[in-house]
Amino acid sequence: xxxxxxxxxxxxxxxxxxxxxxxxxxLKQNVLFKRPLKHSDIKPRLLxxxxxxxxINFVYANVNRLIVKHQRDFLYLVGPGHGFPAVQANLFIEGxxxxxYPETIPYDESGIEDICKKFSAAYGYPSHANPEAPGQxxxxxxxGYSLSVxxxxxxxxxxLIAACLVGDGESETGPLAASWYANRLVDPxxxxxxxxxxxxxxxxxSGPTRMGRMSHEELDLEFRGLGYHPIIVDDELEQDVYxxxxxxxxxxxxxIDDIQTRARNGEDIxxxxxxxxxxxxxxxxxxxSEFNGEKLEGNCDSHQVIVNKCAxxxxxxxxxxxxxxSYKFDELYNIDDNGNLQFDADIESLIPPKQLCCGRQxxxxxxxxxxxxxxxxxKALSYGPETPRGTRGLSMYKMGExxxxxxxxxxxxxxxxxxxxxxxxxxxxxxxFEETSRAWQWPIESWDKDMSRDGRVVELLSENxxxxxxxxxxxxxxxxxxxxxxxxxxxxxxxxxxxxxxxYASQGVHFRKPVPSCNVVLSSLLxxxxxxxxxxxNPSFLGAMLEKHPDIISxxxxxxxxxxxxxxxxxxxxRDKLNIIVAGKKDxxxxxxxxxxxxQTKDGIMVWDFASDDNPDxxxxxxxxxxxxxxxxxxxxxxxxxxxVKVRFVSVTELNSNGLxxxxxxxxxxxxxxxxxxxxxxxxxxxxxxxxxxKLVFDYKGSHRFRIKGYEEEGSTTTPFDMGVRNxxxxxxxxxxxxxxxxxxxxIDETQHVSITTDMLQRLVEHRNYIKxxxxxxxxxxxxxxTR
Length: 788
What we know:
Elements: H1 4-26, H2 53-70, E1 73-78, H3 84-94, H4 96-100, H5 109-118, H6 146-154, E2 160-167, H7 174-179, E3 193-199, H8 216-225, E4 229-234, H9 241-264, E5 275-280, E6 290-291, E7 294-295, H10 314-326, E8 333-335, E9 341-343, H11 345-348, H12 366-369, H13 378-381, E10 392-393, H14 395-409, E11 416-420, E12 438-439, E13 451-452, E14 457-459, H15 463-475, E15 479-485, H16 493-506, E16 518-523, H17 540-545, E17 553-556, H18 561-573, E18 578-582, E19 588-589, H19 594-603, E20 605-607, E21 618-623, H20 625-641, E22 647-652, E23 654-656, E24 659-660, H21 663-666, H22 671-676, E25 681-686, H23 690-696, E26 706-709, H24 720-727, H25 731-744, H26 750-774, H27 779-782
Parallel strand pairs: 1-2, 2-3, 3-5, 4-5, 11-14, 11-15, 12-13, 15-16, 16-18, 17-18, 21-22, 21-25, 25-26
Antiparallel strand pairs: 6-7, 8-9, 10-19, 17-23, 20-22, 23-24
Helix pairs in contact: 1-2, 1-3, 1-5, 2-3, 2-9, 6-15, 14-18, 18-19, 20-25, 25-26
């Protein structure tokens, strides 16, 4: 139980941080309020969000108390989107800002002036949590991700507790709602714990929240149903809210410690009932309670900047004067003759040892703690050089074997996970279950397969939850993969964008080092979603991500199993990246030896000599495994029809927003002519939307020669080959397009062009009639074999 002295200390620390948060929002000078405010002290643009700040400060102080008391690692994640003045106030008082920014934010009055003047100012500090701030592991502007990121951070960090403040507005988002289910996935014996604290201040920007209008009984029932032990703190109860919160934090810590101790002593903990604190405090607590007859404190009107005309209106300025004076900040610090700043002894008693301060928490700096993976031997896993070209195999199964061996090699490091929002079996990664299993903390029945308390595969049907856990796991220095159905990856497009923003912003921060890559694997591709139908056909995640920073995002589209292995190896060796690997899960021809695949992985683009002629008349290119098969099939066809025509085949396996191939390849623009010739027509068959490639080759001087094929948003329940037919990416369409290019260039005459086009169109008609009658593709399609 908290002592009276501890309660006094908590109240003083919250007073101090509330003052500093307010000062950041309003003041450009007189930031310590040494004299009554003047209009000239006020910033010309008042930006920020006051309403959530008092709750953030209140929780931060209580987290500090637990750190000091138990000397344990804590992360503090702030879910409410725009409460950075509160976060920054605490980072200043604990000394973390001065540690990392000794020149610009020294621990003195000038440091306070810096954070006040620059908050929400041009080239200053954002209004939400950000990587430039110590101790932060996510961009805080977009709501809904805090709790899932917290769960990911504590995985395999057994001594860590992630205190996660969840806003009641944030709790209405889909990602946050799904994040409560992570209690089914985290093993208390080997991982840390998340302490969720839901801040029920009752309001969003202009209206009430769902939880804000729920009774204590309703809240209790909801969270018990989710599997938690709810602890309610309410500032309208008779007991002092500071005492309530300290008791709630103590009880939560005891519950976490009890669950972990029993699990680590060998007890099988089924359905661990983790604590959750449901904290009701007024929105805008301690600010101006009302103004001009309007209720501010405890209302949505306190959400952003209240009394916002202080620079011109005397009544507004007086209200701010009274507000700042209420904190009696001058009683809470001293500045000696040398300018050294020291806070009140009670406040100092709540500042943790330097290495345990939330802003200095080493696990929030993943680049400092990362350990490279021991990489599997690709020679042992690959299709060997004796494998005939065109032999069918499974790319995703090869990736599963790579992951299996990686789990085995890194067993003692415990720094590798799969986060799979769809079944691992479905995406052909089941080889991993030879080494590990799926994590599950709730009852496991005797007939359940591949499930255990400490499995390395985290599987639950929520893309939002698992991508957030992936984020938390990688930015704290570990390695992971996120395999999902291609069609549903767009669910986390915005989350992936936020991850990339975090990485990009981190690269400009001197105290952050590169973190392991975030590896998204897209499988169950549109070309083989013939049975699931149109709803499962959507490659738009690729296009969306390829708009982003080329240094951070790369898309890898390996053409076969060996290429999938080399790109998997490369992805897990990368740092500060979001890698997208696109690989089909059905059997497809295998084209490259391991050495050839390594060579292609280096440049991301390669002429396949075994399929190409010297001095070509036309160039055919493929990007994607299914479309590559169609390219090679079209080569066989056109050589049968036009044996004197010379064709070059180009395989493209890497894309980024700068264009085709790797960054190293793109550094020499003339190499595009080396690959695609200087003047020949090009037919480009792409796995995704054609506009993606059109944009990537727009700046290439030879782009006018390209005929780009791809998914045209045509699909239904049909046969596998008919998916290509419907979108113009089939072998027959490619022959038609190559014949047209050859005719344009005068290589063949009009008679030959018309003859070939008519032949291909007739084959398409015959194919359609065949599948409508028989329900399957013809044998010559199903059993097609590569011949040269």
